[in-house]
Amino acid sequence: MGDGAPLTVSGAVLGARRRFAEAGLETPELDARVLVGHALGLDRVGMISDGNRPLTPEEGARIDALVVRRLAREPVGRILGYREFWGLRFALGPETLEPRPDSEAIVEAALDAVSAGPGRAARMRIADLGTGSGCLLVALLSELPSAFGVGIDIGPGAVRVARENAVANGVADRAGFVLSHWSDALSGGFDVVVSNPPYITSEECAVLPREVAGFDPAAALDGGADGLDSYRAILDDVARVLAPSGTLVLELGAGQCEAVSRLARDRGLLPGEARRDLAGIDRALAITVSCA
Question: What is the mean pLDDT of the chain?
Answer without folding.
Answer: 95
